[in-house]
Amino acid sequence: MTVRYMPGFGNDFETESLPGALPQGQNSPQRPAYGLYAEQLSGSPFTAPRGTNERSWLYRIRPSVRHTSRFKPVEYARWKSAPNLDDHELSLGQLRWDPIPIPNEETDFLAGIRTMTTAGDTQGQSGMAAHIYVANASMVDDHFFNADGELLIVPQEGGIRVMTEMGIMEVTPGEICIVPRGMIFKVELMDGPVRGYICENYGAKFTLPDRGPIGANCLANPRDFKTPVAWYEEKETPCRLTVKWCGRFYRTEIDHSPLDVVAWHGNYSPYKYDLSTFSPVGAILFDHPDPSIFTVLTAPSGEEGTANVDFVIFPPRWLVAEHTFRPPWYHRNIMSEFMGLIKGQYDAKEAGFVPGGISLHNMMLPHGPDATGFEKATKAELKPVKLDDTMAFMFETRFPQNLTRFAAESEALQDDYIDCWTGLRKRFNGTPEGDWS
Ligand SMILES: O=C(O)Cc1cc(O)ccc1O
Ligand SMILES: [Fe+2]
Prior knowledge:
Bound molecules: 2-(3,6-dihydroxyphenyl)acetic acid, fe (ii) ion
Number of helices: 2
Distance between the termini: 59 Å
Number of strands: 28
Number of domains: 2
CATH class of the largest domain: Mainly Beta
Order of helices and strands: EEEEEEEEEEEEEEEEEEEEEEEEEHEEEH
CATH topology of the largest domain: Jelly Rolls
Largest sheet: 9 strands, antiparallel
Shape: globular
Structural class: mainly beta
């Protein structure tokens, strides 16, 4: 299958998979070409300011409202939504997990979502949830849309084919994709079992951060975001559509595929991004800047500079800072940090944080490099060093992240994580030189 994309972030795109399917000069003709139905999908209120106003016009074989049955409640017990408080007995702490195992029993992308943390409130359209997905089967006749937020999907193992109403995205480890709130999709596996991370953003959409004095280039450049061209299937066999709506799940039957959009135009669309196209800007003389320099996407909260969620990466880069402790500093943060590792090693942790693993450093909880990393970094010869073959990331939110029972009781939880800091001995010895032996 060849998939094609259009470059640009938040562009007003137009695409048709049959010639002349897209109306020109108007949105809602009396009789659209090919007998298609016109349907608007609004991602912002009608009256949102121009800069944040998002909607697309979909020209489809049947309108979405043509589903056969009423919505009936269904269970996805491991997918939790905020608020989800007091769900477990685990005490407060810095936490880390090994990779969540891929199950042996047949599990598709939807059934394979396990929520680790929730923050904020779906009803108030603020906050987020951090999930792991594990799957070994493709969705075939099952489809899904999430009314509670957009999904930022971060594959860690295996490629996924995200088949949306507006086109197909193939997303492999090292790439990410966004499925907008309300968009119908299903997920096929490209070549085998998969695992990855999801940030379900209940708040305002992810956008590109302002670059300030950095200027017009670097970090994530708009042309590296790719939106799929229109694609449709004419499948007249029974299908299902599952909906997540204010934390609950519902299902309806449809007698055809809901992926039947022949042409569309607009600026509310799915997209993918290759993390290797991120051009990092960093300290080229001394000191360790705040990780916000590595923000790929930010979802604003309404309060200037205080993100609902930031998606931050730690990509391959050169470390050149002179007379500097180069790894992250020890710190306490009002924002809550959920981290994952796509591949390689993370510079604050020598061991224990492995690809597919997770760490959680919640609001105001102290953390930083482990004792071995500290030891190495204080003794290292400070020549230029390339951090290579690595890709870690962080979902950082202004809201405290509440653990789910699944996360708290998971066998993957490392009960000795805090011991990684035990070796940070006293070096203060009353002399200005200190004890750096
Ligand atoms: O805690 C972490 O590992 C993430 C992080 C990295 C960094 O370079 C500075 C601050 C920060 O929170
Ligand atoms: Fe941190």
